[in-house]
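Message: Just now I want nothing more than another pair of eyes on a protein record. I am handing you a single protein, as its sequence and its fold in token form. As I understand it, each token names a local backbone shape. Take your time, and here it is.
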Amino acid sequence: MEEGNNQSKKWEHDENSNEMNNWELPEEESVDWRGRPSNPNKHGGMRAALFVLGLQAFEIMGIAAVGNNLITYVINEMHFPLSKAANIVTNFVGTIFIFGLLGGYLSDAFLGSFWTILVFGFVELSGFILLSVQAHLPQLKPPKCNPLIDQSSCKEAKGFKATFFFMALYLVALGSGCVKPNMIAHGADQFSQSHPKQSKRLSSYFNAAYFAFSMGELIALTLLVWVQTHSGMDVGFGVSAAAMTIGLISLVSGTMFFRNKRPRRSIFTPIAQVVVAAISKRKLVAPSDPRMLHGGHHVSNDVVPSSTLPHTPRLRFLDKACIKVQETNTKESPWKLCTVSQVEQVKTLISLVPIFASTIVFNTILAQLQTFSVQQGSSMNTRLSNSFHIPPASLQAIPYIMLIFLVPLYDSLFVPFARKFTGHNSGIAPLTRIGIGLFLSTFSMVSAAFLEKKRRDSSVIDGRILSIFWITPQFLIFGISEMFTAVGLIEFFYKQSAKGMESFLMALTYCSYSFGFYFSSVLVSIVNKITSTSVNSKGWLEDNDLNKDRLDLFYWLLAVLSLLNFLSYLFWSRWNIKSSRSNNANVVGDDNI
């Protein structure tokens, strides 16, 4: 008992209340590639995670080279108008992350993360190959034209040509969507959260994963975009296929070193049981003493068994699922009676929703940097020297040049320094990290609005074309904010108490991207409709000419939405911290939010 008390106190000191509710669940059984119990000396750890990081770097290299320069290809080769082309890109990126839910579900319920990555990695590879074929064959594209000289002569891709293009594009979306959340989860599965040293390494892994992401993005936005610009999109898409092939080789090479978690079949059944049981007992009154609930007799003990979660006062309606109706020894159906631990896991999942929702506007801003900001760069002076021009799509490489230096410094210097003051394995708690990123993203749009006003006035009034380097600040600021928010969100979701749903929770973090990009498409349409004052007057973003559009006002709108979103996040993050504290636990909260 004394040993148990010491362990309980250690957890209270080391962990914040918003992670796993300060209570461990039993360590997931892990197996090797043959299905035998894994050996800690042979399987898992950073060595195994490096093979996954290799896949992540090459996968993002391939998909980023396609996605970040896709709007140029869609406009110049497929001849879609600007607003429609921007929506094609945002819908494509959004769909990638929606498919992440499918990948997360298949992994947790049936295939496991390794096999899900392998199967859908080949689906993504096939999409890259088809895009390369489509870009190479003139028969699969509309006739060439120059939209700057005669817009009416450019025929938009339709029929079989459009069908082939979208089929290839959405094969990439399906494959990439199912691969992405499982890469993060499979890499994180190589570390045991119950081991203090590996728990610290898990935090370092999340930073390393973002470093691999940054390296992949940087190479895609420089070397691969340069290849696309100078050798053609067919060669560029082919290089993306080659990068994905190397990534899959990296994954397969680590097969013998991986520790794999067994899939749990139905991951939604326990959730449904809690909801059904709570609704069926909605007219009953939940007892004020949580010890009266089924499975709640541990809450008053000094030591809570590792197989249970402590009762928390949040979302009390769900506690009705734990009310015992029959006093006999007859076992009630799991659809009528659930344990406190089972209910607390559902509470945890529901409490993630407002945190998840707070990152949607953040990713709407990201959508602008991959669409309208690229078009901004196209209308600026891209000349670096007499013979070298910066491809506009490479603008997004600016933050990643900085991040490949900043992320290692953050992990090796800042995290150990902050850990001395916070006692948190990650240096600062994930919720704090998310909030910092959301706050900084507002200034990315403020910078973009000022720049666009200056660029437009210089072009229309003074007849001058600004240098493309004026656009740097908005990318730099957002890059820093993404380092905080994206990594913080992934770490926060992975460390929640919903065991057996790690891949699905990673998919939810990526869903934030999809909703952000979809919201961008909707917002563009709404803004155009509202700002069209008459039949002959176009909206802020309806013209293909940025000198006639009012992109600066659209950026100001996003800055205001971002600030309001940050204030909303402050409220929900505080609620998450306070409500996740158990009735009997005196824990260290994340009070610096």
About this structure: The CA atoms of residues 456 and 547 lie 6 Å apart. Residues 1-27, 298-307, 584-592 have pLDDT under 50 and may be disordered. The chain has 17 helices and two strands.
